[in-house]
Amino acid sequence: MVSAINARVNGVVRTILTNVSYRSAGRPSSFTYGNGAVRQLTYGWDNRLQSISTGALQSLSYGYDANDRMSSIANDYDGSTQTFGYNNVDRLTMGRRHDGQDEYWSYDSIGHRQTHNRGTSGFTLNYQGNWLKGVSGGSVSRSYQIDALGNRTQLTHGGATEGTDFYYDPFQRQRWVVRGTNQTECDTARAGTCPVMTAGLWTYGYNHAGQRTYRSDHSPPSRFQLRRGTDYFSRDSLRTTRRWIQRYLHAPSGELLAETAPNSNTDDGAIASVYVYFAGQPVAVIRNGVVNYIYNDHLGRPEVVANSTNQPVWRAKNYAFHREVMQQGGSFGALNLGFPGQYYDAETNLYYNWHRYYDPSTGRYTQADPIGLMGGVNTYGYVGGNPIAAIDRNGLYTCVLTTVGPMGVRDHAAVYTSRGDGSGGRALYDPAGSYGAANGGGSSGLVIGEAANVSKFAEFHKKQQVEVTCKNTSREEEESVINKAMDLPAAGPFQCAEMSSTALSGHPSFPNVQAGTF
C-alpha cells in the first residue's frame, strides 16, 4: 500500500502526502499533506463514513437516516448544515443548502425531473418522451432542440430564435459549440440568475478512447456565414479565427493528469497544471511550479485548495447537483474539476464527463447513454437522482455480466465495478471464469487495471451474447462488493452464479439479490 507520495518539481522533491494509515478494508483513514495539514476520515461500526477533517480548513460530519441514506452534512468550518430527503426509490427530493434555502425536486416514474423549487422560485421541466424540451418558471425560459439521436443541438432563451448551437461528430462527440452573439442565460442551478454568456465558437478534440484532448476558443461566425454554408469548421478557417487552445492529458482510466493554460494560441503550449491522485481522488495540483493541495468531500469532489502554508486559494460550496465557487483567482486561478470524472467548461456551463456532458442546471446529461437501455430506462439520468451518494466517473455504468450460450442458456456470471479495487480503480470479479484466468485473476477471479473492462470481457466472449445489467453505485458500495468477493473461497466449476450473487447480496443497490439466486 502507498505510504507516501512525492513529486519532483523544478528539480526539487516535494512532499504531496505522507504518514498514510489504512483501515482493515484497505481504505485510507488518515494522511498528512505536504503543507502539514492532517486529513482524517472516521467510520462507524457499520463502516459508514462519519466525518472528514483536514487541518483548520475543512470539517465535515455526516448523518444517515433509518434506510442508510445520507441525511445531513454538517460543515463546522462555516457552521452550516445541509439536510436531505428522499422518495421511496431513493431519489433526492429535498436539499437544504448552506445558506438555509430549501430545494425540492420531483420525478416521474422513470426518474425524469419534473419540477425544481428553490426558495420562492419554481421551475417546470417539459419533455417529449425521453427528450428534455424546455424549462420554465420565474426568469427562466429555456428551450432545447434535440436531433434524431437524442443529442442536444440548440439552447435558446425566452423564445429567441438564436442561442447556443451544439454540433457533433460521427461518433456523437460534442465537436463544436457556436454562440453568434452574447446571450443572457438564466438557469435553475443559479436560482434564476442570468449571466451574460459571451459570443464565440469553441472546438473540442478527442482521442481514440473518446477522451478529450483539447478545447479551443475562436471568434464567432456570423449567422449569415452559417446559413450560407460557409466552411467555417474547416481546419484552415478555425486556425485563422482561433484565440486560444487548451490541451489535456488523461490516464487510460480517465483521470486528468495535466493541462496547458487556456491563454495561449500555440499548438505546443507548456504544461501549466499537473494533477496528483491518491485512492482515486485528486490530492494536489502542481500549477506553474507551485504545489497546491486539494481537500475533497466524501465523493472526491474538491471543496478547498490550499497552498504550502495551508492558506485557502480556492473554495467551493458543494451542493447536491452543482456547486458554487466562493473563492478563486489570484496566482492560483480556477479549478475546473467537479464531480469525479467531470471537468467544467465555462463557455457552456456544462461539465465534460468523458463520454458525454453533464448539465448541472437540470441534473442530467445532454446526450443519451451510449449503451442505451442497459444503463436504465432514463438514458439521460445522472446517478439515479442521488448525486450525494453515487458518482459516474465516465458517464456510463457499473454492471453485472452474464454470458448466454447455445439455446439461450445463461452459463456464466461476473461482476464489474468501476471503482471497487480499493484505490478508486476498476475491478472485475470473474469467479471460475476463463476471462479472469486469462487476465491475471488467479484463483480469486479478481481482474484489475486495464483488463477490468466490460468491452474487453464481451470481446473475449464474442462467440456468446453478453448481457449487461447496470446500476449506479457509490464507490463505498463497490469496494464492499469486491471485498466480500475476496473473502469468498475460490470458485469451483459451475459456482460462478452462486459466488457472484453472494458478493452482491446485502448491498442496497441489489436489494433482491440473495446468495445463490442467479
- The computed structural class is mainly beta
Number of DSSP helical runs: 6
Number of strands: 38
Q: Helicity, in percent? A: under 10%
Q: Mind describing the biggest β-sheet?
A: 27 strands, antiparallel
| Average residue-wise pLDDT | 87
**Cα distance spanning the termini:** 35 Å
What's the shape?
globular
Gyration radius, in Å = 23 Å
Q: Unreliable stretches, pLDDT < 50, 5 or more residues?
A: none
Please give a structural write-up.
- With 518 residues, the protein is mainly beta.
- The protein is built from six helices and 38 strands.
- The protein is globular.
- 9% of the residues lie in helices and 42% in strands.
- The longest helix is centred in the C-terminal third of the chain and has 12 residues, at 475-486.
Which descriptors apply to this entry?
single chain; 518 residues; mainly beta; 27-stranded antiparallel beta sheet; 5-stranded antiparallel beta sheet; 6 helices; globular
What order do the helices and strands come in, and which of them pair?
Layout: E1 5-9, E2 12-22, E3 28-33, E4 38-43, E5 49-54, E6 58-64, E7 70-75, E8 80-86, E9 92-96, E10 102-107, E11 113-118, E12 121-128, E13 131-137, E14 140-146, E15 152-157, E16 164-168, E17 174-179, E18 183-184, E19 196-197, E20 200-206, E21 212-218, H1 223-227, H2 235-241, E22 242-250, E23 256-260, E24 271-278, E25 281-287, E26 290-296, E27 302-306, E28 312-318, E29 323-327, E30 343-345, E31 350-352, E32 357-359, E33 364-365, E34 398-404, E35 410-417, E36 427-429, H3 434-438, E37 446-448, H4 454-460, E38 465-471, H5 475-486, H6 496-504
Antiparallel strand pairs: 1-2, 2-3, 3-4, 4-5, 5-6, 6-7, 7-8, 8-9, 9-10, 10-11, 11-12, 12-13, 13-14, 14-15, 15-16, 16-17, 17-20, 18-19, 20-21, 21-22, 22-23, 23-24, 24-25, 25-26, 26-27, 27-28, 28-29, 30-31, 31-32, 32-33, 34-35, 34-38, 35-36, 36-37
Helix pairs in contact: 5-6
